[in-house]
Write the structure tokens for this entry.
Amino acid sequence: MTDQPWDAAIIGGGLVGVATAFYLSQRGARVLVLDRQELNRAASGQNAGSLHFQIEQRLVSHGEAMTRQAATILPLIRDAITRWGGITEALGETDLDVVQHGGLMVAENAEQIALLESKLALEGEGGLPTRIIDGDELRSMAPYLGPKVIAATHCPVEGHGNPRLITAALARAALRARAEIRTWSPVTGLRRDGGVWRIESGPAGDGGARIDRARTVVNAAGAWSREVAALAGLHLPVFPVALSMNATDAAVPFIPLLIQHVGRRLSLKQMREGNLLIGGGWSARFERAEGAFDTLRPPAPRLESIRGNLAAALTVVPALAQRTLLRSWTGIVGVTADQLPLLGEMPEAPGFFVATGGSAFTLGLTYAALLAEMIDAGRTSMDVSIYAPDRFGHINMFMGA
Amino acid sequence: MTEAIYQVAIVGAGPGGLAAARECAAAGARAVVIDEQEAPGGQIFRQAPRGFSAGAERFGAGYVEGVVAANETRALTGIDWRPDTSVWGLLTPGQSGSDHFRLATTSSTGLDEIVAERLILATGCYDMPVPFPGWTLPGVMGAGAVQAFMKSQRVLPGERVVLAGSHPLLLIVADQMLAFGKPPVAVIFSQRKSRVFAMLRRPLTGLGFSRLLMQAAAALGRLLRAGVPIRFGSAVVAAQGRDGVETARVSRISGDGRPEGAEERVGCDTVGIGYGFTASAELARLAGAEMRWAPWQGGWVVAHDDGMRASVPALHVAGEIAGIGGAHTAVAEGRLAALTALGDLGLTVSAPDLRRARRASAQCRRFAALLAELSTPPEGLLRSLQGPDTIICRCEGTTRGEIGATLGGNPFLGTSDAVKLLARPGMGACQARYCGRSLAEITAEVTGRSLEEVGPPRVRTPVKPVPLSHFRLPDA
């Protein structure tokens, strides 16, 4: 073991963790990534890859105050739009299936159109290029939409990333920049020791734990951020949520846009290989262990979710009836108590950073870039104080390592 | 929704499922049998459509008896039958949030659901896919598929058929072709002659008898008398042709299991490959049952106790998914699984019956182990058939070289699932049935991890692809 501590030890090998490793090691930092199992095996690889920049259905459907709060995310969104646009080149890759041909959020009735209009105003204030379209313009832009769809908001820079590919590409680039990645290395202990963090990892039992020291720790454990914070004696209000997604067989490309619905849980897109991914926030069911949620096992699907999600997709794009359902899968995503991102240093634990919550696939690269700025430069290029974890300081008042 | 809650649901109407159904009927249990085929019997007693029934005797007396028995079981009262039906989703009692299994089914009439207290899976097996250069050409198929053509349609898939592999089934298929008047061009065993003959003598020794091996020995005699060329210590190393297979390239196998010496070209339009079978254990895996790696007895098979209970509560297994063992094993285990399930339900089960079933199952398993040992190809042979350009995942067209490059370029990968996610092998319509084993073997070989660590790609719902049109709401 070298005595030189790591500049950052990143816990969690998903999109946020590996991207943070990439941005930090590009800045010359010495970085270690630890993952309990493999990279990209939780929400980062399980989500449906939407690059959705319009304010989401789940956020506009809980009244205006929630919608207005959700709009505070727009500065991060603006960063994500350009960052995703440049990521393929930045990683020295040729094709990571990052597509920004635009996206539609569709409506089927007057009530839903009103929701579109209210979010449109906020998006305009936040500098997002969104507009409402209907009639012939909508049909010519998206001839595959079913007759029940009567209007949509169009955002020209939406699209999709590919959850299968992006994290591995970031990991390859991070390795080239000399980051160290250790898989199958669950972190089992975390405490301050002589001004640095002491990180205990590795399979407990045989061989014993491995000790690393790092100036900073990044909690990038997504849905498990709460457990990682607890290792350092801290509370984080991050809750695991079990969701399901679906994929059809491959079709000739016919849907270039990201399709979302303002009044139903639906996201729909066609990936590079022709398969259509259908999601939108339909629940799965946690396995239980001794009464508690078992988040280490994949959640069980809910047949009702599969049926409901596909029925919604068929209404919006009737031609999907010619496809077959190839697979449904479930994943676990971390949701914060107020649905806003948790991003920044925890005041109770100097050098302990967290980034999770919000739309962590769409915003993952942005979170990572901001963390790298915080850790390397001590400040960020935009004001992100409203996402800082100190807003939950009251639950950590009596906590600490 | 008020639906019947069955005491036992049986998936698979092959010998194992039918044996279980007979016990359920005898005990008066409310039971349902679900099967993908129109007629009962599974693969081994696969039936031709009505009106096609002539010529069954060519498959031998055992086949005719099996079909009759299957149809008699089908006629039993008290059992519900769901033929022509696939189970695409499965929730265990723990996963469904109820006390019951929920099975999501699909048939020509659409989606349906079956609710049951106990589940017996007897889902059988399929020809073990063996990738080699040209294996995706039309005309290259499993030896079991050649047989399925004969049983279900009374036709042969080609005029000039080469059978190759290591399993005694090759002899039985060849014999049935002979009865059709069209014997194969050649039957090619990878094992040496002495080993195959030793195998065929074994049924008459020690343990009792194996009907499959006796059948194979009789078949060998008939084939030799008819002058059908049978070779040993050789393998088909490549299939070639323009729009379909035209030539099988045959090579001798060296002592260390590698092809050696000059290749011989055998003209043919069909190649039937028979190195063994893969357990159709997808539903058991979906349920989260503990699996065990049994390379020459079905790959990943379901671990179970001496009453055929899997690790998931109330889940029982029988036959090939518990380890390839043939029809007699499946019958013994189907009976045992049902008796155990009925007993667990609180129904009266005769202790002597249970003892007999347990003894019969154990005896069958000893034969299954012997058969597996004797029909295993020379070690390293199948691996040596694959070149960098050999397609491993035929749905997505992923080659061995591409999988190797993915592993090489991403040193952090350590499971089949992670490789699947990145390079797409196993993401197509067959849902990794063709490539799952090869993918795991390559991943293990390149990473130096064990097959247990690398695992098969995870099974997803739906277990068989479902037309999306089934999910359309009536008003949409």
